[in-house]
Design a protein that fits this description.
Layout lengths: L1 E6 L2 E4 L4 E9 L6 E7 L6 E7 L5 E3 L7 E6 L4 E6 L8 E8 L5 E2 L3 E6 L1
Parallel strand pairs: 2-11
Antiparallel strand pairs: 1-3, 3-8, 4-5, 4-9, 5-6, 7-8, 9-10, 9-11
Length: about 120
Amino acid sequence: QVQLVESGGGLVQAGGSLRLSCAASGRTFSTSNMGWFRQAPGKVREFVASMKWSGGSTSYADSVKGRFTISRDNAKNTIYLQMNSLKPEDTAVYYCAAGPTLFDYWGQGTQVTVSS
């Protein structure tokens, strides 16, 4: 099993920045893929960004390219999501996810609210 704990959410004005963190524990050798998803009220959960633990290749949703950056700290088994130039439409619960191939493990989510 892998446990994921997110932190760093909050309320920010449009144009501001936040950094989310996701700490992994347990069978972390299974977390070859890690990523971030989000779910806004009344909408389906959507992909935001992902990173392969080995090699560090990244992928981003078109809606966040150029504004969000995913990164990792190997020693802390932690990934981050730096979110800049935030927009009201970025308001959602953000979830960290991980797994060996698919995203099998999920965190509890952290709320991000962007005011206009």
